């Protein structure tokens, strides 16, 4: 949405309420702003120049920055700062633009941290099988028409890592239609969506196949640890299930990692520092990545669990570290499959589960091959789910950090 006519144009396309300012002052290269509600912002002059809309800093059409850092004048200083009759901030710079105007609500959202990636999103909370027996569930029969249901399901996926839709029907295209409301699915060598069936006849042919296409038990795992960035979320739709057994399992990796850190520091150290090579074997593919099972990433990035024994290939560490890497991995997998951490529940025809593939370890029990069992799955990256959630929450203004 564009800013309303007559208001200050912000460096984005969002509407902000005016936020009363109590005091504004210049301190060298900085402008200090104190809001009536107690929020404060100490803004560096060159950063303000970069964010001056229509004054050479931000392009009003794209709302993107225009100044190449190589050309940025770091001697720029604010020489006058005031509040205009509408309550917004007007700053003169020297050298630099005069009369640059900044919306008080936009400045305030930076002051309270609402510009950061975590704003507008539910907070992740870990769970164990002791306090969560099955995934939180929403009405799949109306989710394609009702954005409120869709957002509630997405919010539960973000907070708990897994959430279920029931009553989705048996159209194999349901998951793709659902993803279409959120963002583009992530394509892989398995295709933009893929089937899970008890059919391993393709092995040895040109097609790529997986242990998933058998009737075997699948222990707790994450998909595609063979990639630099494994897929963020997975949607798995049970299209047909006429078999006995084959219950789904889900384990919150956040809770397992926490338990390892507290109770098994030696295993936690091995799991977070010793690398393994994972690779997808196929006649026409060769995807490989080397990383620890618990990849802590960066302080601002979510952790990535790499746990899929069918595609774990080689220890990528000193030979003397291999025994402790195996010992740690065994404890990790035992905890992930334990009644303490792992929920088990039937996967019924018409159910769709969405889960964070880098946080949640999923699996299934073995099942009889007497009837048909057909799942249709797809991957969709974190970026798409997070963008959908932010846009939706900004519209309905329900989470702290919205305007
Ligand atoms: Fe899987």
Summarize the structure.
The protein is an alpha+beta fold. It is built from eight helices and 21 strands.
Q: What is the topology?
A:
Blueprint: E1 21-27, E2 30-35, E3 40-44, H1 45-50, E4 77-83, E5 89-94, E6 100-102, H2 104-111, E7 136-139, H3 147-160, E8 162-166, H4 174-180, E9 194-197, E10 218-221, E11 233-241, E12 248-252, H5 253-263, H6 265-273, E13 275-282, E14 285-291, E15 294-295, E16 304-305, E17 312-316, H7 322-336, E18 342-345, E19 352-356, E20 360-364, E21 373-380, H8 382-396
Parallel strand pairs: 7-8
Antiparallel strand pairs: 1-2, 2-3, 4-5, 5-6, 8-19, 9-21, 10-20, 11-19, 11-21, 12-18, 12-20, 13-14, 13-17, 15-16
Helix pairs in contact: 3-8, 5-6, 6-7
The structure holds fe (ii) ion (FE2).
Question: Please, could you describe this protein's structure?
Answer:
- The protein has 403 residues and is α+β, with helices and mostly antiparallel strands.
- It folds into 2 domains: 95 residues, NE0471 N-terminal domain-like; 259 residues, Clavaminate synthase-like (Double-stranded beta-helix, 4-Layer Sandwich), CATH 3.60.130.
- It is 21% helix and 28% strand.
- The chain is built from 8 helices and 21 strands.
- It has a 6-stranded mixed sheet. It has a 4-stranded antiparallel sheet with strand order 10-20-12-18. Strands 1-2-3 form a 3-stranded antiparallel sheet.
- Strand 1 and strand 2 form a beta hairpin.
- Helix 5 crosses helix 6.
- The longest helix is centred in the last third of the chain and has 15 residues.
- The relative contact order is 0.16.
- The structure holds fe (ii) ion (FE2).
């Amino acid at each position: 949405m564009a800013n309303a006519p007559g208001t200050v144009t912000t460096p984005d396309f969002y509407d902000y309420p005016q936020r009363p300012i109590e005091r504004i002052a210049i301190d060298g290269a900085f402008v200090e702003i104190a809001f009536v509600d107690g929020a404060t912002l100490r803004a560096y002059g060159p950063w303000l120049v970069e964010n001056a809309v229509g004054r050479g800093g931000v392009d009003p059409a794209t709302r993107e920055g225009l100044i190449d850092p190589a050309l940025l004048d770091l001697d720029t200083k604010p020489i006058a700062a005031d509040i205009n009759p509408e309550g917004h901030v007007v700053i003169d710079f020297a050298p630099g633009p005069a009369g640059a105007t900044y919306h008080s609500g936009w400045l305030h959202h930076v002051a309270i941290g609402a510009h950061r990636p975590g704003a507008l999103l539910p907070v992740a909370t870990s769970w164990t099988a002791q306090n969560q027996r099955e995934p939180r569930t929403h009405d799949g029969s109306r989710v394609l028409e009702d954005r409120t249901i869709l957002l509630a399901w997405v919010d539960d996926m973000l907070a708990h890592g897994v959430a279920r839709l029931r009553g989705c029907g048996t159209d194999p295209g349901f998951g793709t239609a659902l993803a279409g409301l959120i963002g583009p699915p992530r394509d892989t060598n398995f295709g933009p969506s893929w089937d899970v069936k008890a059919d391993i006849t393709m092995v040895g042919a040109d097609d790529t196949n997986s242990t998933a296409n058998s009737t075997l038990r699948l222990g707790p795992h994450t998909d595609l640890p063979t990639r630099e960035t494994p897929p963020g979320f997975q949607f798995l739709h049970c299209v047909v299930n006429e078999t006995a057994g084959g219950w789904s399992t889900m384990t919150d990796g956040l809770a397992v990692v926490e338990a390892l850190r507290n109770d098994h520091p030696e295993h936690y150290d091995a799991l977070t520092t010793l690398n393994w090579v994972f690779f997808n074997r196929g006649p026409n593919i060769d995807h490989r990545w080397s990383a620890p099972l618990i990849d802590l990433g960066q302080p601002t990035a979510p952790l990535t669990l790499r746990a899929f024994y069918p595609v774990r290939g080689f220890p990528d560490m000193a030979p003397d570290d291999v025994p402790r890497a195996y010992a740690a991995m065994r404890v990790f997998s035992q905890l992930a499959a334990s009644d303490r951490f792992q929920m088990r529940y039937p996967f019924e025809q018409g159910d769709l589960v969405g889960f964070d593939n880098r946080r949640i370890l999923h699996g299934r029990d073995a099942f009889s091959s007497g009837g048909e069992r057909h799942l249709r799955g797809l991957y969709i990256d974190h970026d798409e789910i997070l963008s959908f959630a932010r846009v939706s929450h900004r519209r309905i203004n329900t989470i702290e950090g919205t305007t």
